[in-house]
Records
---
Amino acid sequence: MTALCRQLAIDGGEPVRSRMLPYGRQTVTENDIASVVEALRSDWLTTGPRVAEFEREFAAAVGAAHAVAVSSGTAALHATTRVLDIGPGDEVIVPAITFVATANAVVYEGGTPVFADVDPATLLLDPAGVEECVTDRTRAIVAVDYAGQPCDYDALSEIAERHGLALVSDACHSLGGAHKGRPVGTLADMSVFSLHPVKPITTGEGGVITTDDEAMAARMRRFRNHGINSDHRSREATGTWAYDQEELGFNYRITDIQCALGISQLSGLTARTDRMQEIAASYREAFATVEGVEPLALLPDVRHAYHLFVIRLDAATLGVDRGRVFEALRAEGIGVNVHYRPVYLNSFYEARFGARPGLCPAAEAAYAEILSLPIFTTMTDSDVADVIDAVDKVTRSYREGRD
Ligand SMILES: *Cc1c(COP(=O)(O)O)cnc(C)c1O
């Protein structure tokens, strides 16, 4: 090692930061807090007017006709597999690299998730790979806007149309993004959002589905309320006690307290996406000259929402694998993470569907190399500089100590 190399914190050196910088974090403003307090003082804590108001504002923000708000992104995904009437024998194509909830929503309804490989440059569904997975049992494609980058919806819509399949966008990472000028939320038959604290906007827990299909929206509202055809407030308004449960639903309702937070959070969305792009641009510029570190590629003409900033680490160049870099960066106070292990490698999927390593080679190769760096709106420029400094320090040290 040369004298220029600083001793790594993992080897007993001085860490870049003394306090761990997390990979993601919510932004909650004083206006958000005031909005929630107002809801707490109102007549309705749940099934009240703030739910419909949040739905209207969310739909308007993405340019969709309807938005249905539910208790989580997972519940939102489940609502889509229900209204598509997915059942035993039906196959739904999902990407190998996503959060497990994308595939679980198919399994909840008795369907079979079919894992399609991803494009190694972007880790988004590879349209050619999707085409290979289509059989006469295929009913739908769920595209995941991994890390916040919208998929190639032109190519995916064309495949879906040609085979008569539904197209669902798992947009849990990409609220605020766009593909060829069209906002995320309008790019598929239904688009699903998560409102978990690390996601683009938050309600603590929560989820939303957007669609232009009025019948689907109505059925999802019934599904989130046990399958009952009216809610408490509408019965109050019409002075009736009678209701009918028309299908087996769940209590997937979101509260007015959460929607009060959501309404307030929506107003900060554009500024948030702009800040994420600014941080990402600093990372891309800095890592362009760091050997062995490769940010994921950008598709042409997208607005990337940057829920995650993902780099790939080349073990041959660095002389160490991703696991070692992960530990070294955490020792430097940089809260790196890994998103995600290919879903089918989870023991549940191996046991239930007999999935085995080797199914999606590009996803498995990527999984060995990916690392998510901290990115969130309230990171300061000095936090960003610390991440860049730590990545440079760690990778330089391993490159120079190689052999
Ligand atoms: C977060 C997430 C979900 C699930 O959302 P929850 O609100 O946590 O239930 C689903 N899909 C993807 C891609 C996610 O990142």
---
Amino acid sequence: MNLPSPISTVTFNNFTFDVKRDDLIDPYISGNKWRKLKHILAKAQQLGKKHLVTFGGAYSNHLVATAASGAKFGFKTTAFVRGEAVTNEMLTICKLYGMQLLFVNREEYKDKVKLFDDHFGGESNAFFIDEGGACAEATLGCAEIIDELNACYDHIFCAAGTGTTAAGLLKGINEKTPNTQLQVIQVLKGQDFITAEVGKYVAELAQLKVHTNYHFGGYAKFNNELLDFIKNFTATTGILADQVYTGKLFYAVTDLLKNGIIGPTEKILVVHTGGLLGLLGIKDHL
Ligand SMILES: *Cc1c(COP(=O)(O)O)cnc(C)c1O
């Protein structure tokens, strides 16, 4: 793993900010998915477990990261995949890394503990990892992003799906740089549910700010405005961003700067959480 991940300073639309390049940690065990898995795998190893069992959709960065890190660190891997049996590029990579894929319908998928117990309850080597790697160990790995910083930032930005990464970052901020504001871009449509999720792991929430108006229609939804932004951003800065997470994140940073919500002299770090295989989802749209 390429850690600590480097920091790039980019200038875009006349605004300058730093980017924590967790997308460069590994091509397939990328970004926050490695941060989350690091302590989970250490715990599995400690307990003598040999078989990682996890859960995700057919386009899950977490499944690819689990498959690749399982192969690298000597675990067998199995994934329960939500929905009808399909093939796509991401699942192909999972299979290459030796992951066994078990497709289950949406109803069955809801009860993950039952799925694990029914299939692997009798296997003492098997180790349960929740969807997206969500758990307390995952927040510890994400808090380590703050340990790797040499500068103090006014604002740290990240994208949020479940909020586990945001919880880890806030934990690190509260301990190390308590004046830093954590600006979280919720990529799912709807009211803020991130604050409650972060609150499961972190008691002090004063430095947390959640933005709910940059979802572009909902999870994995996008429009031409977002695609044009991503093309322009990538061509200008040399940094790829996907339409599910980091494209919406960089769009939000740029928009908040443009509207003066964040001042031009404030020091900003954007956490690039990786997940670039998600770009396969726009192959028919460019
Ligand atoms: C999974 C993922 C996220 C969301 O992380 P949460 O901890 O679920 O909020 C953000 N960015 C990328 C690139 C991801 O793959």
